[in-house]
Design goal:
- By secondary structure, this protein is mainly β.
- The chain has no helices and seven strands.
- A hairpin with a 2-residue loop joins strand 1 and strand 2.
- The radius of gyration is 11 Å and the shape is globular.
Length: 67
Amino acid sequence: MGRALRPGEEVSWNTSRGTTHGREMKKTAAPDLIEDHKIAATNPEYVAESSKSGKRAAHKRSALKKS
């Protein structure tokens, strides 16, 4: 699993189009709204921003790899 990520750290994750790179923005453990999409976040999730598109998405820690 690895250690907790800190805001601003470079991360990568897999998508249907391949690997995406970006920065970890914040850790959330409460319901939140990202890009007009509700996330439940009953377990801690990390919000990452793609360096290519600028879009944000929430991921579990296990889905993110430190770049």
